[in-house]
Structure formats: structure tokens, C-alpha cells
Amino acid sequence: MTSGTHSLRWGQARRIAFIDLRLQYDGRLNRKDLIDFFGISVPQASSDLAEYAKIAPDNMEYDASARAYIARPGFTPVSGRATSSHYLFELYGLARELLARDESFIGYVPLTGIVATPARPLVATEMAEWVRAIRDGDVVEGCYQSMDADTPREVRVSPHALGYDGLRWHIRAYCHTRSLFRDFAIGRFEIRKTEPGSALIDATSDVGWITEVGVRLVPHPGLTASQRLAVVKDYAMQDGVLVLRCRKAMLFYTLRHLNLESLEIQSDAARQHVVVENHHEVAQWILEDRQGCATAG
Q1: Which of 47, 62, 116, 135 has its CA 20 to 30 A from that of 232?
Q2: Which CATH number does the domain 3-103 belong to among 3.40.109, 1.10.3470, 1.10.10, 1.20.1420?
Q3: Most distant CA pair in the chain: distance in Å?
Q4: pTM, to two decimals
């Protein structure tokens, strides 16, 4: 929200964001849109539209023939919810059925295709137990099935963070069984017991987690000049470089997500698009992280 919306009550601030988003993407809205979505009165809807006009006087005008407010040329959104990132996040949530239709401010929903991935649902009660264990500094005991072992192993961990690798959620924890910091896929961990408030480690000693590194992505050298310009725009590069910041502990997952884990420049530029410019540094960071912790398979 802009400074003009900070003083609004929460309910009206949401309605102002709704107006802003509908104008941005649908190009129009009317009182009925507000009334139907929020269940408010006609006077309240009129008041909200008048308030929006005060905040952004050049953003809309009333079209009597359409009986709707229309976005004016040069429209400038005043709500963070109207950004393309937030809009696409909501669109993704709708497509994956993670977000109910009446929870989204989006009006017209374009046909949307999403890459199919396994849902990997997590039990809410178990997730809540992990969250509370992180908050309270608990020690968790249970069984973990790693892909480098034939059968589950008994482990005792002090969790301190959550991690997402693009496909799965992990627990970042100190493993007392192996005396190192490690990632555990939540779906493969069976909690047996929790020791309340008995933290045995300091999360700031997890160097791999607290250390931030920068992966420098540049267009593949085999691309044509026009292709390089397209990649620079697509990745929002500055001066032909995108510095992707991430935790050292998440570096392996980041590279795998980008299909760059080998760090080698593939010969087919049309398939790779970008390469890691500081690949020697990145290889060293991965080695350091592996020496100081472990990724559970």
C-alpha cells in the first residue's frame, strides 16, 4: 500500500486493494463487484470508491454508458496486491485449488495451465508440531527414511527452520545422532516424541544456513545478440547479470531447480539459456556446505 492508504482500517484497506486490482487487470469495476464480494451496503461501496478516488485521483473515471468505473490511461496501482507477482501468485493458487474462488480478488480468470507436480500433502497436525518445535526450541525424536539407507533410522533433532526446494518442504535441524546440521524431508520423518523447551543448539551456529551467497547468472555465450537481449529482459538482469541470492544451505536446491547443478556450460544454448558466471566460487561453496552439514536423501 502507498502512504495514502496506511491510515485506513483493515477492512477498508482490503476493499481499496480490491478496487485497485480489478482496475489494473479487468480495467473496470462497479459498486456491485464490491457489494457481492464483501457483502457490504451500497453506501459503503460508494464510500470506498470515493476514498479510492481521493488516494488515486487519476486512476479511474465513471463511464455512465457502461455503468462502471474505468481505469484511465496511465493507471498506477496503489496496492502491493495489484503487482504482477501477487496477481500471478493468486492465479497459481486458483489453478492448483490452493485458493478458493471467493478468497481471490481476481475478477476475470484466464485459462491457466500449471506444470503437473506431485501434491505431496503434509498432515496439518504434524506440520503444526514442527512449527511449535521450531518456535519453542524443542528436541524431536523419531524415525527418518533416507534414500541412502534401506530402512528407517532413529534420529534426534533440534529443528530451527523450514526450507522449500521447489518440490518438497524440509526441516532444517541439528541432528544429534550424526552431530551435524542437516535437511530432513518432512514427509519422510515420523515423529515419535518431543522434548518441550529443551533446545541444545544455537541456530546461529548453522553457518550454512545463515551464510548468504550470490549466484551470478548470465546469458549463455552461444546465444545471438537478439537472444541475449531476450534473456536479459526475461530474467530482469542488470547490465547483463542476475545475482541470485540464497542461503548456502539452499544452494544445491537452487541450482537443481534451475537445472544448473552440473555448473557446466551445455553446448546447446537454446536449451540452457543462462550459465553460472562464478561457477568456481559456487563449486567451492557447495563443497564447503557438504563438509559442514548434510542433505538427507
Answers
A1: 116
A2: 1.10.10
A3: 72
A4: 0.81
